[in-house]
Structures are given as structure tokens and as C-alpha cells.
Amino acid sequence: MRLPTLAALLLPPALACNACTRKTSDRDLVFVTPAQAIEKFHGKPGLFGKPVKGVWVDPRRPEHYAKEHVAGAISLPLARMEAEAAIALRGYDLFIVYDTDLEDTMGKAASKRLMELGFDDVYTLEGGLKAWKREGYEVEPREAPAPEKPAAPTKAAVAKPGS
């Protein structure tokens, strides 16, 4: 077999495999502050004037999501993202991914993974949940107020019966 013929046979399948997923890097990430994220949800209409339907994506482990998350966020752990993203995120056209804080790599990795899977309009919340709460936005479940200290017993409350 001649070399050009061998290359002609091997090159198309190799090119086809590279088209399966997008390649991403940290340069592809678009960071937004909490206020900018809110604006994205309420900003310009999408295609044909249709309102943008956005969603918060929480890639942390389920127990972290259960402890606290942005209201309305979808729990989509990074480990299950490839298998579940198409179904869990169907119908949405704007995605804001967050993690716990600025240094967490999970939010960045999840944003890149969504882009690799073909999702557009993916943003990463700069500062994660810490920035979200610091700017006064609420999380779910809402933290219960600290229990009040019981009042010190009075003399009447500790008096012996019959005295």
C-alpha cells in the first residue's frame, strides 16, 4: 500500500474523533460576579426575543449541595456530568456554574466540561458561594437562627416544692 493511500484511510477517522468534543482551556472561562450573574438571568432576550432561560449548576458533591446552594440550583456533580448533563439541563440556554470559593477548581472544571459537551453561554461565578453570600444573596436551605440561650432560672423556679 502506498503512503498517500494509507494516510487517506487513517486521517478521516482521526479527524472525526476530534470533532466529538470541543477542546477547552482556562482561557475559555468567562467569570461573572454575583451581580453580573443576576443580570445575565434578567438581561437581554435570547433568540427571536424569547426570554433567556438560565440555571445555576452546582457541580459539588451531593452532601455539599444539601448543606447549602444557590436557590433553584441544579445539583449536577462533576463525576456524573457527562452522563447526566443532556437530560438535567435540557431546556436551558444559560448556565452559571459555581463552587465554594475562588480557589476551588471544581467550578472551573465543570464549566469547561459543559463547554466540551456542547453547551453555550456557560459562565463561572467568581468567588463561588462565599462571594454570593458576602454580597447578601441567600442560599438554601436557609441557615436556622442560632438557638437562644435559656433564661437563667429564677429563685421561684428552683424553690423546693412545699417550701
Describe this structure in words.
The chain has 163 residues and is α/β, with parallel strands linked by helices. The protein has a domain at 29-142: Oxidized Rhodanese, domain 1. Helices cover 38% and strands 13% of the residues. It is built from 7 helices and 7 strands. It has helices spanning 3-18, 34-42, 62-67, 81-88, 105-116, 128-134, 155-158, and strands spanning 31-32, 54-58, 69-70, 74-75, 94-97, 122-125, 139-140. The strands form 2 sheets. It has a 5-stranded parallel sheet with strand order 1-6-5-2-4. Helix 5 (105-116) links the parallel strand 5 (94-97) and strand 6 (122-125). The chain starts with a helix and ends in a 5-residue tail after the last helix. Residues 5-20 and 151-161 have low confidence and may be disordered.
